[in-house]
Structure formats: structure tokens, C-alpha cells
Design the sequence.
């Protein structure tokens, strides 16, 4: 659901304010340190209940304030507005949906799926597997309800098995968790492999805008245990080593995927800007798949899209977003920029010293 308005209090350097948005493209310009990224961060915190900047949300509380509050009105198809809010006092997070406390923070994510395109984007290629697993899990949480159940059950059994390994329990006490892990772990694997296969089809079509021979792009999925073994067998075979190491070394908690282009790792085969486009392409692919499977459009937060991208490529990204009916929040030092090409820019704002004013 698109954001119709956002009320901000006590967040980073931003003044207390209420902003109304367009369901299309919203642009925020301003000098360094004006508060543009903080504004995107506020929207991100509402959708994901965490920040892309700080590991603790306490740091986002404005200096000298005791808490922050973010309240958005989400626009349903019927034009009815659904209020959602999140507040943070040091160490304490509260979320409300439609006037009621949210049962789970993930309920916020279900209401408005967010995609972040900004700093640390390259981490999806350069960092270790956790970010890539998060990408898979996040995508599947939104399209497959049975996935959430299997994921939670797997995590619970894995924790118990690892606790038993740390406590140097007997092989029998450790293996008691294997049955559940195998049942759920194999489900996770089937869903992940299928999901990534679908994402790849979208990705190749999208990347056709950005690179030659996009069909030479390959996504290689690793499930976390040997490809030629059943998970139960792999777990049994690793028991001895697991007991030595004190944790479970095999399973979907080790899954990963990598990209190749023309048979080479993408960090060698693609330029830095092309790698950024690949990650944006992946996010566009995820949002397209989500829309096709659930009819739910995504929100995109673009922080300085122009960094590393030429104007033509920025235009192509914006065209894709327009085709997806995504609500877009974009920042740049100056406007008009390439973000304006689609003719879909509906609202422009200027940010200065934490104050946001609409440019008319
Ligand atoms: N908890 C906080 N309370 C008050 N101010 C903060 C807090 N956290 C960060 N700031 C300040 O907020 C300012 C705005 O930062 P922000 O990253 O939003 O700017 P920006 O407009 O995106 O700049 P740039 O174009 O340089 O990326 C910075 O000067 C930062 O020091």
C-alpha cells in the first residue's frame, strides 16, 4: 500500500512535521547533511522495524529527545487510509497498525514491501551469504505463507540442536532435532530454489536494458549441503564434525547464491556501475515477481541513484519503476535530474537543515 502521508517526531536531525506524498515519484533535493537520507530512513524504519544505518534504533532518536515517533497513513485500494506507527524509546520499540498494537513487527513489512537502493548496495555481491539469504527469505515471506512457518520451525530446531552440541550432549540427544530440521530444511530448499529460478527469469529480462547478452547472466544457488545427498544423510554424516565444532555445519542456514556473467564472477566481468545495476535489477525482479504473484506494488527508496550511474541508466531504472507502479522516494543533491524523465514525478521537496518544504 502506498504511503499517503508521514508524520515524523524526534527522528535524527529532522524537524517535527507531516508530509503528504504522491503515489508515484517523490523527489527530495538538498545539500549534504540536510536530512535527505534520514527521511528515507524514517520510511524504511516504518516498513522494516530496523535501520539500514545503525544496528540500534536508539541512535536514530534525535539528540536531546527521549523518543522518536513515526506515523504513516497507508492508502488502500478503496482509498481508505490505514494508520501505522512505530515509536522508539531507548531499548523499547512499539508498533501499531490501525490503532492496535502490532502482534509481530513483520506485519508492517507485509503492508508495504520496501526496497532499499542506496549505500552498501554492493554488499549483496561483495559480503558474505547472510545478506543474500535475507534477500531470499524476505522475498519468500511475501509470496509463500507456508514458508514462514517452515522457516521459524527450522530456526527453533537448529537452535536446540546447536545448544545440545555446545553442551557436548550425546549423539542421540543431538540427533533428536534432525527429523524436524530435515522436514523443514528440505521445504526451505525447494522454495528457495524455485523462487530464485523465477527471479532469474525476471532479472535476465530486466538486465537486457543494461548489459549486452543478459542471457549470459547466471545465478547459481547453493542449498547448504551436498547437491547429491538428502539432507538427512548430510546431517548424519556431519554429526562427528558438528560435535567437534559445537554447531551444525550443514543445512539451509548455510545456503547462498552467486552470480556469473559469461561464465565469470560478476565482480570481474561487470563494471562497478553495472554491478550496481545488477543489484537494482535483482530488486526490480523481486518487486515484479511480488506484483505478479500478489498484485501488491512495492515502495522503492532511492538514495542518490545518480552515484555510479550515467543519466541513461538512471532513466531506464526510473522507467522500470514507473512500469511497476512502484511508489518511489528518491534523493539527490540537485533537481531536476534523470529521475524526472518518466514525466511521473509528482511531488518535489527541498530539504534544508532538517526542514522539508514542497517545491511547487
Ligand atoms: N540522532 C541524531 N540526532 C540529530 N542529528 C543526527 C542524528 N543522527 C545523525 N544526525 C545528523 O543528521 C544530519 C543529516 O544526515 P543525512 O545523512 O540525513 O543527510 P543527507 O541529506 O542525506 O546528506 P548527504 O547528501 O551528505 O548524504 C547529519 O548531519 C547527521 O550528523
Sequence:
Amino acid at each position: 500500500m502506498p504511503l499517503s502521508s508521514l508524520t515524523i517526531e524526534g527522528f535524527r536531525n529532522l524537524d517535527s512535521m507531516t508530509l503528504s506524498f504522491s503515489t508515484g515519484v517523490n523527489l527530495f533535493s538538498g545539500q549534504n547533511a540536510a536530512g535527505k537520507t534520514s527521511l528515507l530512513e524514517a520510511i524504511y524504519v516504518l516498513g522494516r522495524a530496523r535501520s539500514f544505518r545503525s544496528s540500534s534504533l536508539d541512535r536514530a532518536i534525535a539528540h536531546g529527545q527521549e523518543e522518536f515517533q513515526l506515523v504513516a497513513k497507508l492508502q488502500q485500494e478503496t482509498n481508505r487510509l490505514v494508520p501505522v506507527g512505530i515509536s522508539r524509546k531507548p531499548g523499547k520499540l512499539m508498533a501499531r497498525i490501525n490503532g492496535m498494537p502490532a502482534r509481530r513487527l513483520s506485519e508492517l513489512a507485509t503492508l508495504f514491501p520496501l526496497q532499499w537502493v542506496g549505500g552498501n548496495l554492493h554488499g549483496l555481491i561483495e559480503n558474505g551469504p547472510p545478506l543474500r539469504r535475507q534477500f531470499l527469505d524476505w522475498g519468500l515471506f511475501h509470496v509463500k505463507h507456508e514458508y514462514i512457518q517452515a522457516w521459524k520451525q527450522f530456526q527453533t530446531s537448529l537452535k536446540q540442536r546447536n545448544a545440545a552440541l555446545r553442551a557436548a550432549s550425546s549423539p542421540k540427544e543431538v540427533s533428536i532435532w534432525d527429523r524436524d530440521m530435515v522436514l523443514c530444511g528440505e521445504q526451505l530448499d525447494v522454495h528457495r530454489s524455485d523462487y530464485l529460478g523465477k527471479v532469474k527469469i525476471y532479472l535476465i529480462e530486466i538486465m537486457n536494458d543494461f548489459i549486452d547478452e543478459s542471457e549470459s547472466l547466471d545465478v547459481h544457488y547453493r542449498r547448504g549441503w551436498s547437491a547429491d545427498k538428502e539432507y538427512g544423510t548430510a546431517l548424519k554424516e556431519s554429526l562427528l564434525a558438528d560435535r567437534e565444532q559445537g554447531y551444525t555445519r550443514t543445512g539451509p542456514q548455510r545456503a547462498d547464491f552467486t552470480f556469473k556473467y559469461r561464465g565469470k564472477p560478476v565482480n570481474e566481468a561487470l563494471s562497478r556501475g553495472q554491478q550496481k545495476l545488477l543489484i537494482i535489477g535483482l530488486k526490480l525482479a523481486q518487486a515484479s515477481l511480488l506484483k505478479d504473484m500478489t498484485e501488491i506494488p512495492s515502495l522503492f527508496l532511492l538514495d542518490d541513484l545518480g552515484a555510479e550511474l550515467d543519466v541513461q541508466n538512471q532513466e531506464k531504472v526510473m522507467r522500470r519503476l514507473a512500469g511497476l507502479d512502484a511508489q518511489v522516494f528518491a534523493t539527490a543533491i540537485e533537481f531536476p535530474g534523470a529521475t524526472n524523465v518518466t514525466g511521473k514525478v509528482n511531488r518535489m521537496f527541498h530539504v534544508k537543515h532538517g526542514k522539508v518544504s514542497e517545491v511547487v
